[in-house]
Design brief:
Elements (H helix, E strand, L loop, with lengths): L1 H10 L4 H7 L5 H12 L3 H10 L19
Length: 71
């Protein structure tokens, strides 16, 4: 789910609620919390950072590896 969420954010114009539904979350808020836990930022922040990166480059932000607890 974490990898697919990033893929949909990078490669589509789907709304966050649509991505949430595709990935099987009951509510968009649950998707947002899960995404933050997986990647260290919200889907909105991730999409903004991806959009700000120059085409063909990696954004200055990189997602947190899955399984890292930010506590």
């Amino acid at each position: 789910r974490a990898d697919l969420a990033l893929k949909y954010l990078r490669q589509s114009t789907l709304r966050f609620a649509e991505i949430s539904e595709i990935l099987g979350f009951a509510e968009p808020s649950v998707f947002t919390r899960s995404f933050r836990r997986w990647h260290g930022c919200t889907p909105r922040e991730a999409r903004r950072r991806i959009a700000q990166a120059a085409p063909g480059t990696t954004p200055a932000w990189t997602p947190m590896p899955i399984g890292i607890d930010r506590a």
